[in-house]
Amino acid sequence: MKVALIQQKYYETKADTIALTKSKIVEAAQEGAKLVVLQELHQNEYFCQSEDTKFFDYALSFDEDVKYWSSVAKEAGVVLVASLFEARAMGLYHNTAVVFENDGSVAGKYRKMHIPDDPNFYEKFYFTPGDLGFEPIDTSVGRLGVLVCWDQWYPEAARLMALRGAQMLIYPTAIGWFDGDSEAEKERQKESWITIQRSHAIANGIPVLSCNRVGFEKDSSGVSEGIRFWGNSFVCNSGGAMIAHAAHQEETILYADIDHAYTKSVRDIWPFLRDRRIDAYENITKRYCD
């Protein structure tokens, strides 16, 4: 099965950005992609660099956005993973991935569970932690374990998706570095990000698809210079081997072929799920074992 990850930058307005995204989705479909993955919060700038209530208005178009991406999925005839800002009620907002079937229907959604709070990544100001759990979404291309960005650092999230039958893990992402960091520090961060996700593929015996944004985005508050999103979108197979890897600043449609037969062969030879000591894991639900 051919999949496509759309790695792109923000084009100053929502209208310009989504127009380009749509054109790339259509292009990917014409190239034979059956599943298309978009990056985190792909409609707008990464607004979480500062804390400003004006950005909550971005979430007010959630229903309209769902209808729009539904029509794009139907037109292109692809299963589409979108990442949207959801207004659930006044003062209650989520970072939500919505999965559309190739006929435009909503296959399911996932609300981001792990919410960071770091310089230029002030997501706790905007997003309520998800309450839908770690439930895979059934589609015509398989059972998708959709998680979002900060979730990718947590092996528990990947494992729970796998235990519920996810056939692949999908991470819409917005992560980057600061230009003032040393080259060694930038490389360390990027390699850690790649390594942790490849480890999820290996430990769970399923492919990982990670789609990140690119480009420099200023901090609108002026407190800092901003973030340079590092791209490096990738797909690795169920053994953790890279099968597609994008550059760090290029906009691109990254294609890869997912081989479910290979996934079965890896699961058969590395039966990690068989050998889990579920009788000895009671402390995993504690914050810390004193």
Question: How does this model look, in words?
Answer:
This protein has five helices and 15 strands. With 290 residues, it is of the alpha/beta class. The protein has a single domain, classed as Nitrilase/N-carbamoyl-D-aminoacid amidohydrolase (4-Layer Sandwich), CATH 3.60.110. The strands form three sheets. The chain has a six-stranded mixed sheet. A six-stranded mixed sheet has the order 6-7-8-10-13-14, with helices on one face. Strands 9-12-11 form a three-stranded antiparallel sheet. A hairpin with a 2-residue loop joins strand 3 (79-89) and strand 4. Helix 1 packs parallel to helix 2 (62-76) and helix 3 runs parallel beside helix 4 (183-204). The model has no long low-confidence stretch (mean pLDDT 97).
Could you give the topology of this structure?
Elements: E1 2-7, H1 14-30, E2 35-38, H2 62-76, E3 79-89, E4 92-100, E5 106-111, E6 137-139, E7 142-146, H3 155-163, E8 168-173, E9 176-177, H4 183-204, E10 208-212, E11 214-218, E12 226-230, E13 234-236, E14 242-245, E15 252-257, H5 260-269
Parallel strand pairs: 1-2, 2-3, 7-8, 8-10
Antiparallel strand pairs: 1-15, 3-4, 4-5, 6-7, 9-12, 10-13, 11-12, 13-14
Structural class: alpha/beta
Any guess at the CATH architecture?
A: 4-Layer Sandwich
Percent range for β-strand residues: 25-35%
CATH topology: Nitrilase/N-carbamoyl-D-aminoacid amidohydrolase
Distance from N terminus to C terminus (CA atoms, Å) equals 47 Å
Quick recap:
This protein has 290 residues and is of the alpha/beta class. The protein has helices spanning 14-30, 62-76, 155-163, 183-204, 260-269, and strands at 2-7, 35-38, 79-89, 92-100, 106-111, 137-139, 142-146, 168-173, 176-177, 208-212, 214-218, 226-230, 234-236, 242-245, 252-257. The strands form three sheets. Strands 5-4-3-2-1-15 form a six-stranded mixed sheet. It has a six-stranded mixed sheet with strand order 6-7-8-10-13-14, covered by helices on one side.
